C-alpha cells in the first residue's frame, strides 16, 4: 500500500511552472517530486537570517515589531527560532524546559 499523501493546490506565478519542469527534467524526476524535494529541503532546520529575510512577506518585520514591541532582542530571536522548529523539536524543547 502506498504512503498516504495530501493534495494541495497552489497558484504559480507566470514562468515558474516551466522552471519547475526544467529542473525536474534535469534531476530526472516528476514535477511533483521536484516540488516536494525542494519544499522539504527549504524547510529543514533553522534557516539563516538572510534566507529568512528573503522569504518573509513584505512588512513582516514591521508587523512583528509592532506586535512584540515589549520583547528584548534575545526574546525575539528565541521566538523566531521556536517558530522555525518542527512540531517534534518544539515538543522536545518544551519538555526539556518544563
Structural class comes to: mainly alpha
Approximately what portion of the residues adopt beta-strand conformation? under 5%
Helical stretch count?
6
Distance from first to last alpha carbon: 40 Å
Features:
single chain, 98 residues, mainly alpha, 2 domains, 6 helices, extended
Characterise the protein shown here.
This protein has 98 residues and is mostly helical. The chain folds into two domains: 11-44; 46-98, no CATH class. Helices cover 62% and strands 0% of the residues. The protein is built from six helices and no strands. Helix 1 (16-26) packs across helix 2 (31-42). The longest helix has 12 residues, at 31-42. The radius of gyration is 18 Å and the shape is extended. The mean pLDDT is 81.
What's the SSE blueprint?
Elements lengths: L15 H11 L4 H12 L6 H7 L4 H8 L5 H12 L2 H11 L1
Concise account of the structure shown:
This protein has 98 residues and is mainly α. Helix content is 62%, strand content 0%.
